[in-house]
Write a structure and sequence with these properties.
The chain is an alpha+beta fold. It contains 11 helices and 6 strands. The protein has 2 domains: about 30-70 and about 110-285 and about 330-450, Outer membrane efflux proteins (OEP) (Up-down Bundle), CATH 1.20.1600; about 70-110 and about 285-325, Single Sheet (Outer membrane efflux proteins (OEP)). A hairpin with a 6-residue loop joins strand 2 (about 70-85) and strand 3.
Length: about 450
């Protein structure tokens, strides 16, 4: 093969390999937005599945309570081989017997215990549904918060890489100054140490990014090896909507929207019905009963099996059965006492959650307002630190400032830059906390992600 043909073949092979690699990367790399991260967590997180199982279990309990109102039906059959010893003759005789029956019962009255049990089961289903809703909010806010943490880590990595590049550039400048005899060797050594520290800082930031990415994947219910690319939202500012809300209004809104509070209210209603259900043991029980059947005995030699079973020996009964409790070993009394204790516990828990909601809402609003002020301060500090470093750099170049002054100005600028990055995303973090505390997390997430959240 001549040289031009060989070069053309190599170019074709490289092109094919490049296309395959590009296609493979597109298939495996996941561009992840905030809305996608939250939605994936709501689908794949194991805690969501556990909460949904509780709701399904409560739904089955409702079906079970509803089935108590239906009549029961049982079928029974017996077949026996009998042995009869005759004392007078000293002989014995074998004969066969058999019978079958159908019985049914329908409860007419049991102190309204079945009605109370059905209502209680429905209330418990409502509580399970609202508990699932709160668990979805918990997972959503966790996924969104961890998504923002990864964004912060990415920005900090960019800043750390820029810091390392600047330190390396400054090191070359100082080395040139030292070789020209305008700077002492101590400046060179100090700058070498600062460059090494900048490299170590970059490694630490990358480690944090890797760990926080794994944490996000875990919350999303994904494998750690899933490659992904975080897509920053276009805008994360929440505006003045949250800052203009008063504590009283937010607390009143939380009392209406918080699913965990609504679930506790359903539990109180359920415990009230459970008390009624337990008290049903004091009342008599009235059932409508019916029975039909037939039997066979081989002693009746003049009639065959079919004739006896279907023509001669049939029987039936229908009637009312009344059961009056006289002494049940204190089972009803203790059941009522336990049901009342659970009712009291539910009422106390509701009062506790009400107080906790007031604290959570107040703290979340205060933290959000503080985060916005901190962002303003961080932006101003970054501006002043940039100006101070530029002035120190200009003075150092002409020998009017020492390396210590230049290093301190640069360190202050790096710190201000990192603080501004953290403060910028901290506003969004605290906005999520406000939405979670008030129960309107869906609206906050929709504003931040500009996408649909399946809550």
């Amino acid at each position: 093969m001549n040289r031009p043909a060989s070069m053309i073949l190599k170019m074709v092979v490289l092109l094919i390999v490049g296309c395959v690699s590009s296609a493979w990367g597109e298939e495996t790399a996941k561009r992840l937005s905030l809305a996608e991260a939250v939605n994936m967590a709501l689908v794949h997180n194991p805690d969501i599945h556990l909460a949904r199982h509780q709701e399904e279990s409560a739904a089955v309990s409702v079906e079970r309570a509803r089935g108590i109102f239906q009549p029961s039906l049982q079928a029974a059959a017996q077949a026996r081989e009998n042995y009869l010893q005759k004392a007078a003759s000293g002989g014995s005789e074998n004969f066969e017997t058999g019978n079958f029956s159908f019985s049914s019962a329908l409860n007419l009255f049991n102190g309204f215990g079945d009605t109370a049990g059905l209502v209680a089961s429905r209330q418990e289903l409502g509580a399970a549904t609202k508990t699932l809703k709160r668990e979805q909010q918990t997972i959503a806010v966790a996924a969104a918060s961890e998504f923002l943490v990864v964004l912060v880590d990415q920005k900090l990595e960019e800043a750390a890489a820029e810091n390392l590049a600047s330190q390396e550039k400054l090191l070359e400048q100082i080395r040139a100054f030292f070789q020209a005899g305008s700077r002492p060797v101590t400046d060179l050594y100090r700058q070498q140490a600062e460059t090494s520290q900048a490299e170590l800082d970059l490694l630490n930031v990358r480690r944090n990014l890797e760990v926080d990415t794994l944490t996000l994947l875990n919350t999303m219910g994904q494998a750690p090896a899933m490659p992904m690319e975080i897509v920053p939202p276009v805008e994360l500012e929440l505006g003045e909507a949250l800052t203009g809300t008063s504590l009283h209004e937010s607390y009143r809104q939380a009392l209406i929207l918080r699913p965990d509070l609504l679930a506790r209210q359903d539990e109180i209603a359920s415990t009230q019905e459970r008390v009624r259900e337990a008290r049903a043991g004091y009342f008599p029980s009235v059932d409508l009963v019916a029975n039909a059947g037939s039997d066979y005995n081989s002693f009746s030699s003049d009639r065959n099996f079919s004739s006896q079973l279907f023509e001669d020996n049939g029987s039936g009964m229908i009637g009312i059965s009344v059961s009056i409790p006289i002494f049940d070993r204190d089972q009803t009394r203790t059941s009522v006492a336990l049901a009342k204790i659970r009712q009291t516990d539910a009422i106390t828990t509701l009062a506790k959650i009400r107080q906790q909601i007031g604290l959570e809402v107040g703290q979340a609003l205060a933290d959000y307002r503080t985060a916005r002020k901190q962002l303003e301060v961080a932006k101003a500090r970054l501006t002043y630190s940039t100006q101070a470093y530029e002035a120190a750099q200009a003075r150092y170049k002409v020998g009017a400032a020492s390396w210590v002054e230049l290093s301190e100005a640069w360190s202050a600028l790096v710190t201000a830059r990192n603080d501004e990055i953290k403060a910028r995303y901290q506003v969004s973090q605290q906005g999520l906390a406000v939405g979670y505390a008030r129960g309107d997390l869906e609206q906050v997430l929709a504003h931040m992600s500009h996408g649909e959240i399946d809550l």
